[in-house]
Amino acid sequence: MPRILLVDDEPNIVLALEFLMKKEGYETFTADDGEKALEAIREHQPDLVILDLMMPKLDGYEVCQRVRSDPACKNTVIVMLTAKGREVEREKGLAMGADLYITKPFSTREVVEKVRGLLSETSAP
Amino acid sequence: MLPHWLILSVSFGYLGLLFAVAYYGDKRADAGRSIISNPYIYTFSIAVYCTGWTFYGSVGRAAATGAGFLPIYLGPTLAALLWWLVLRKIIHLSKVFNITSIADFIASRFGKSMKIGGLVTIIAVVGIMPYISLQLKAISLSFNTLFHFHGIPQDSGFFVGEDTALYVALILAVFSILFGTRHIDVTERHEGMVAAIAFESLVKFLAFTAVGLFVTFSIYKGPANLYAEAMQVPELARLMQMDALPGGYATWFSLTFISMTAIMFLPRQFQVLVVENVNEDHVRTATWLFPLYLFAINLFVIPIAFAGVMQFAGANVDPDTLVLALPLMHGHNLLALFVFLGGLSAATGMVIVESIALSTMLSNDLLVPIMLRLKLLRTEAMGGVLLMLRRGCILGVLLLGYLYFRLIGESYALVTIGLVSFAAAAQFAPPILLGLYWKGASRTGALAGLAAGFVVWAYTLLLPSFAKSGWLPISLVDPGPFGISALGPYHLLNLTMFDPITHSVFWSMLFNVGFLVVVSLYDRPAGLDQLQAAVFVQGSRASDTGDTRLWHGTTRVADLMGLVARLIGVDRAERAFQAYAQQHRVQLNSDNVADATLLEFTERELAKTVGAASARVMMSSIIEGEALSIEGLMRIMDETSQVIEYSRQLEQKSRELEAATQELQRTNERLKELDVLKDDFVNTISHELRTPLTSIRALSEIVHDEVNMDPDERQRFLGIMVKETERLTRLVNQVLDFSKIESGAVRGIQEELDLADVTQEALAATSQLARDRDVTISSQLPSEPVRLIGDRDRLVQVIVNLLSNAIKYCDDQVGKVHLRLISDPDEVRMEVRDNGPGIRPEERERIFEKFHQLSDTVKGKPHGTGLGLAICKAIIQNHGGRIWVEDNFGGGSIFTFTLPRQAL
What we know:
The structure holds two protein chains of two kinds. By secondary structure, chain A is of the alpha/beta class. Chain A has a single domain (about 5-125), classed as 3-Layer(aba) Sandwich (Rossmann fold). Chain A is about 45% helix and about 20% strand. Chain B has five domains: about 5-430, Sodium/glucose cotransporter, CATH 1.20.1730.10; about 445-525, no CATH class; about 545-640, no CATH class; about 645-725, Helix Hairpins (Orthogonal Bundle); about 750-900, Histidine kinase-like ATPase, C-terminal domain (Heat Shock Protein 90), CATH 3.30.565.10. In chain B, the strands form two sheets. A five-stranded mixed beta sheet of chain B has the order 2-4-5-7-6. In chain B, helix 9 (about 190-220) packs across helix 15 (about 300-310). The chains are: A alpha/beta, B mainly alpha.
């Protein structure tokens, strides 16, 4: 069963995402800042991380970079979920190694489908 | 006896012929085939020197003094020897500077000085006045001789005899105007006039020689016979001795001297010798041919004089009319008519050239500079005004001559009148000759010398002529003013050894040269004066090196062309500039800034028409910058207040422009800053709005899609959605609120209020929040009301905001907030202390910026819009106060604001 880490400092958004992912049958973990996110990744080795960018202590870009520089997590899929809607920010996110960049507010169905798709790609071989 | 109508019609016919010659000369000049570009015509035009004085007066003088007429012709003969040296230099310089008259020349030598030009003009006009009256007298004398000879009764109604001179003056004025100012453009030379003058010189020579031959060979059978008979008459024999000369050698010398100067420096001689000169090489021919002409025309003076004395022995005949009287007496009326025409030629030639030369000087060197300075004349309208001015001057000069004739002329012989003018013209010799060969001769020196010489001349010659004619008390002359003979005009300091002319020449030259030399030695010429001195003394091809350094400015080519065009017409100006462009192989673009060479060219073009001094004033009126020397600059500043005014306005304008530009730049930068701020603001707001929107959308989609949801969970989700919606609403309201306060669009209500009362209200509003969080609020308020003017609701908002923040950031459970209001005489001070985590120093400024949230404090993200403190700051600033935060020792922060009291 795929494991998903949800990182956002807005508890209500985490709540909604948790509901959606659980319903899909994924195992979920949550974190409300960047440091906790890194801890959770090391501890739970999630298959996919849904990562907010603007967070206290450590922002999403930083988290993304650290994950990508850790060989142990090289297969972790990272989905950035952010209110920063500008094109430069999206490019920056993808350049940092994110697999997908979704802007808030998002369509729940789209997020679910995209996550499903990404997980099936990585687990296929 | 000749009928009147014949005399008159021949006279007018002859004038008409002259006019035809002049017209032909002008036509040929326009066609580019000048007839006067010929050394012989040049020489004959110089013979305008021989006037009615020569024609009638020489014989009169010879009859009275024998060889006494000769110095007047010896002088020019000697002067001609120097022409190749001196005259050529003068001609060359005049061409370089486009000199239009002798006044112009002297003014140019001394730094293009307006004052010198004006003074020379005045001397010339006053000095030549007797000379013109001489011609009027000669013509009317010849008319009257022709009419009245032998006292044959005349019909007085036909010709008003005593006013002959006036009619002559008026007719000659019209003629001179026609000759000299016929052109629409008043520039350059008068080719037609020169042709007519040369023609006249031929006529007067032929006429005089004819009567000489008639007398010598027809009446007396040869010169030897005539001489032998004359020597039989004791008074004639005495005339052949040298001691017959009045004043002896001194007079001989002084007359020779002033004649030497007169041949070059009489205004009309300068005109034909220099201004009308076509080719410098013509001087070579004139140097020998002109003395020859003088010799030839004087050949028969003595024979005619002797014959006259013998023929009219005992009869009361004016010796000045002998030339005409002799043929008349012998009944040779046609010869007499021819002689009369010769005399008419001699006199009219002089008057025409002299009046044109004087009118040019009067307008260019006296009237136009004055009118330009007084701003009576606008440069735009100059062409036409100039022409009228010159015509008026010609008329004025002739009427002055007539006036002198009426006042004085009748009581003097022709030669005596003429010598007065010669002595005046001699005053020009020192500044010109010294100026040409001595660099040290300065403007001030020349001015002093000319003025002193002129005053002495006027005192020793002009004043006595008025006294002797009865217009002033004769006691002024003899013994002298106040009876002091040492002051007598004819014997200053009791110098009695000279005749009046020699006496005047001696003193005036002494003063003239003395002042010129002494003042120049003590004067330090500077600027233009010095430069022109160098150019004139070197006499070299100075046009390229001399003036070019004088002007440099930022005048456009089009401006220069416009200036010249206003004076001489657009066509001629364009032609002149085209010629310039071709000669210098340059392309003249009307928008380009004119270079120094072109500026100098323009000044010379202007000088052709208005003379050097006026041209300079005009140039300086359009050129903005002149680099010369301090003195040169001072002079220009003095002369052209116009330039100063113009540049002052320009400066003012450029300062205003600069200020406006700076203002614009500042505004622009501020706008750019505001634009960046606005961009950030919009970005931040959109981010802040997206966050609650995201929760609402996600949760509502879940509730919508999950039909079989657990009702409790559904309820919980809906509750969150409501809260998030409230948050969104609050955010939108605050943004609107903030933008209103910040833009100052809403000044708020200005009412008198008690801040203690306001604080109580705020405390009450936050008490519930404090209770929820278990925070203790204490307050310390003054017992007296704290009165000031302000917006009550806004101030409540500020205090509530500060209290809520303090409550929010306090430690839970042990939270303590303390509020203190201090009322000072000039300001009110409010402090809100908390015991929360405090704010790091680098954050203390920034927390008052909009959307700056203490997002990375240890405590995590606070719940707020990020606008609260920004709104507080805006409100306090609108009230004229300050707000800041500082460290609360013992933990936490102190938010403080002050409000001024003077609002009350």
